[in-house]
Structure formats: C-alpha cells, structure tokens
Amino acid sequence: LGDVASDDEYLEIPSISRQRAGTYECSAVNDIDTDVRTVDITVNYAPSVSEGRDVGVTLGQRGVLECEADAVPEADFEWYKDDRSLLLDLLPDRGIVTSGSLSRLTFFNVSDGDYGNYTCVAINKLGSSNTSFLLYGEYLDQVQGRPGPDPVLRRQ
C-alpha cells in the first residue's frame, strides 16, 4: 500500500480501488509515549467472472462446468440452460455445488438433453457478471480409444 501516508490525524484515500484493501497502521507519538493502532479496510466491488470453458463429454459420462467469480462481498451464483433457471429444474443426475468463489455444475451421467448452452451469473449487492459455456458431445475414437468430436453435435 506503500504510497498512502499522512502526517495528519486522518488518512484520505482518493479513488479507492480493490488494490487498496488491507491493514493500515496509525501511529501517535509524543514526548511521553507512542501508541499504534491498526485498521482493516475492505473494498467492496461487483463480481467479475472468469471466461467460461466449453466442455466436451461423452454420453453417459460425468461432466463439470466451473464458474469462478472475484467479488467482495462474495458472489451468489445462478445457473441457466438457454434462458431457463436450473434451480427450477434440478434433476437427480446433476447438481450445483458452490464453495466460496467457485460454483460447479456437475452432470453425473450426461444425456442428449444435457448438451447445449449454459450461463453462470455471479451476483452481489454491487452488481453482476456472467459467462457462457457450451456442453457438447464427444465420442470415443474407435481406433485410438480417445475422445474425439461428435460427428453430429459440433461446436457452434
């Protein structure tokens, strides 16, 4: 925080930014004694999400979409397929787990109906941010035994 200092009884931090968050120290000195106090400054800001990564998954396999958001206070997450909230449509073969700044949408047994476009929205009291994902099909390459692009479900 180096360049923020004051010889006054108060400290003014112009143009506060998240980089200014942290612990500040105040020292009072006279001929008799020195007193030092610290204060923790928290800078709140709207969420910023990392760009979504498209994921290819073979039918019947497990697939995971991960959404990470930087925000103070911590963001709440919402997931959508097309424009439909997944909270209204949670099925036993998929789940949403959020821990801190990371939310995971897991498909335990991918079916044809799972393929498509997904959106993760991170929200706090200062705003929101979103990113999109494509869950697309892969098939096992008969020769190599490795996943390859599905000849029917191509990335858009």
Automatic annotation (TrEMBL):
Keywords: Glycoprotein. SMART domains: IG (SM00409), IGc2 (SM00408). SUPFAM superfamilies: Immunoglobulin (SSF48726). Residues 47-132 form the Ig-like domain. CDD domains: Ig. Pfam families: Ig_3. The keyword Glycoprotein applies. Belongs to the immunoglobulin superfamily. IgLON family. This is Neurotrimin. It comes from Salarias fasciatus (Jewelled blenny). The lineage of its organism: Eukaryota, Metazoa, Chordata, Craniata, Vertebrata.
